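Tokens in:
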């Protein structure tokens, strides 16, 4: 075992000890030599899982890694990604929730929860998680995109939407997103500035095929398909090579 790997294991064990003292350490989390071995083994298995293309097989390996050491937020997040790719949405939601709880500064698990709820046609719940991700990192571009899209779908643009668009425009490099965000910025500014906002909000939603009043199932599916194409896939956490 090289010096860098030994130092990494000791560092992670120290974090475990601090966490255990705060909440009541479990036997698994005690910084013993045996626990250091479990951490090392879990990391190796998770790295192997990160290189597997098949989501079902990847999920099995992430579950193996977590079985060896469960205080492993990257493995929980990536397990959720693999389950989401298999449309195992309830299990994916639970995995993302564990990852978000264990890694309280990482916006990715919360972004992934938002993406999951958006795909299940619950934009209000999705927006809640996108915004929670932005509380952790106000410049997390995928969450900025997601929050803006939810505001548009819900027809509830606000000054917060404009703030998110401005931040996203400072970070964005994708030409299609730049064009979309700039277009929405102009439309939403116009909507907020006019006394009769409903007319302007209709115009802002026109590109998604939304009409005022009841949204039909077909329209809702069109909206979700458009958003899925724009927001893409959930975000995995990096797992570095154990070598």
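Residues out:
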């Amino acid at each position: 075992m090289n010096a860098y790997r030994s130092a990494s294991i000791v560092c992670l064990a120290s974090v475990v000890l601090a966490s255990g003292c705060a909440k009541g350490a479990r036997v698994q989390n005690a910084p013993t030599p045996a626990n250091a071995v479990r951490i090392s083994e879990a990391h190796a298995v998770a790295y192997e899982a990160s290189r597997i293309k098949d989501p079902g097989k990847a999920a099995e390996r992430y579950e193996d890694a977590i079985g060896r050491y469960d205080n492993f937020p990257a493995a929980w997040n990536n397990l959720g990604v693999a389950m989401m790719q298999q449309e195992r949405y309830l299990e994916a939601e639970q995995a993302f929730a564990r990852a978000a709880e264990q890694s309280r500064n990482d916006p990715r698990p919360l972004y992934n929860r938002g993406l999951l709820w958006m795909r299940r046609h619950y934009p209000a719940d999705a927006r809640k998680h996108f915004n929670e991700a932005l509380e952790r990192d106000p410049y997390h571009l995928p969450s900025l995109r997601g929050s803006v899209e939810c505001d548009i779908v819900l027809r509830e643009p606000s000054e917060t939407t404009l703030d998110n668009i401005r931040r996203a425009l400072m970070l964005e490099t994708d030409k299609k997103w730049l064009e979309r965000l700039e277009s929405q910025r102009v439309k939403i500014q116009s909507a907020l500035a006019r006394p009769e906002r409903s007319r302007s909000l209709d115009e802002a939603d026109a590109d998604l095929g939304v009409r005022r009043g009841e949204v039909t199932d077909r329209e809702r599916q069109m909206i979700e398909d458009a958003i899925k194409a724009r927001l893409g896939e959930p975000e995995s956490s990096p797992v570095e090579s154990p070598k």
